[in-house]
Amino acid sequence: MLWASQTLSLFGTMVTQFAVNVWLARDLYPLANQKPQLALALTVTGFAATAPLIFGMPLAGAYADRHDRRRVLITANTVLALLSAALVALTLSDRLTLPVAAVLLVFYSLTSSFHSAAFDSSYGRFVRERDLPRASGMMMTSYALAQMLAPPLAATLVALPLLLGGSDRLPAWLTNGVPFAFAADGLTFVVAALVATLIRFPAMPVSPARSGGSLADDVRAGFRWILTRRPFLWLLSMGALANFTFAPLMVLLPLLARDRVLADATARGMSFEAVLAAANTAGGLGGVLAGVLVSVLGLRGWPRSRVMLASLIVLGLGEVLTGLSTTVWGLAAGMFLGELLVAPLNTASFTLWQDLVPPHMLARALATRRFIAQSAFPLGTVVAGWAAAVAEPWAVVTVAGAMLSVGMLVVFTRPGFATLEARMREAAARPG
């Protein structure tokens, strides 16, 4: 029940992300000579949708360690449903502007940080330890399924007014399909909140050392636990590089779908929305295939650090292929390759932390880990937006992917990489 409801919620979130990109590229900045403005707008909304999620994680993790995770999930889903309703109302009334959208996305993202902190640190308690990689694989499959199926669903919802007759049959306030996508997202949050009320969450251990310290003390404890363990920081540096170099692809994909493959898309009779949906769906398909395999087989005892390194190299190569492609199917193939090993990558990372971190520190450690590693994503978003304003977006994406693959190959040659997991286990066993 938990997996199904959260998967549905992920569908809604990605539908909203797709709809925001369509609104920017089709409605707000539709002209070819508005490419710099569109790149800046994509950067603004991308930053608003990710930065609060990441920077709010330490506080959200400390809060989740102190409070009932089930209640946190219910509250977060309810707030997200209300924010979706606001997007619907503003779009229907034609009052949604870029600044207003950015503000709403900031609150959406910040609320999501509390949702993620509570969920990520709780679902592992529902399964036996040996089944944790498979459970993590199921969650990675959820992300991939949402990425694969949400874009065509979103494209259908956005095109719904046209399918119903357009302006000839509908009132003017219903001729824009973007609100339908936002409404679907809000509905998924309502369902997820209701399902969470029916589930009994296993109790989480509380630190025996806690003596009524403040929330700020808990945040500092999460940072201290990680920062005093150098092997964990080395692993986090790999994640930071991945997030920094993958951000350009996530931010600039709408531009690649609209302009880079325009000639091929026109020859095939494909609209911008269809090309963007095809690219996202192909990426999701790669993630689903790997996610299902991990869900069924686990990691089969492979060293998790090596799984992560190999996955990041392939991810970078996929990004290079996406940037260089001038055809719709080439763009889709690059996305497929880029996300083919995301499930093994995230499963290896999550299970390694889940195994080593003390249970009473888990939400804080996972949240702090996410903050440190993913803080590079907003920076990569800003750099990508600036670079795309002065250079071709496809070149920015290609160079970023090459940086990731080459960087991971350099890490593989480092003498300490072979003993990384053993050193992490020793560091985790230290008290304090």
Keywords:
single chain, 432 residues, Growth Hormone, Chain: A, 19 helices
**Number of strand segments:** 0
Task: Let me know the CATH homologous superfamily.
Answer: MFS general substrate transporter like domains
State Rg. Answer: 21 Å
Major pleated sheet: none
**Unreliably modeled segments:** none
- Output the helix-strand order: HHHHHHHHHHHHHHHHHHH
Structural class: mainly alpha
The pLDDT mean sits at 85
Count of DSSP-assigned helices: 19
- CATH-derived topology: Growth Hormone, Chain: A
Q: How much of the sequence is in beta strands?
A: under 5%
Explain this structure to me?
With 432 residues, the chain is mainly α. It contains 19 helices and no strands. It has one domain (2-199, 222-429): MFS general substrate transporter like domains (Growth Hormone, Chain: A, Up-down Bundle). α1 runs antiparallel to α2 (35-55) and α4 runs antiparallel to α5 (98-120). The longest helix has 31 residues, at 230-260. The two termini are 36 Å apart. The model has no long low-confidence stretch (mean pLDDT 85).
Summarize the entry for a quick read:
By secondary structure, this protein is an all-alpha fold. The protein has 19 helices and no strands.
Topology:
Blueprint lengths: L1 H27 L6 H21 L1 H10 L2 H24 L5 H23 L11 H27 L1 H4 L14 H19 L18 H13 L2 H31 L1 H7 L3 H26 L6 H21 L3 H12 L2 H15 L5 H13 L1 H15 L2 H21 L6 H10 L3
Helix pairs in contact: 1-2, 1-6, 1-8, 2-5, 2-10, 2-17, 3-5, 3-9, 3-16, 4-5, 4-8, 5-16, 6-8, 6-12, 6-15, 9-16, 10-12, 10-13, 10-16, 10-17, 10-18, 10-19, 12-14, 12-15, 13-14, 13-15, 13-18, 17-18
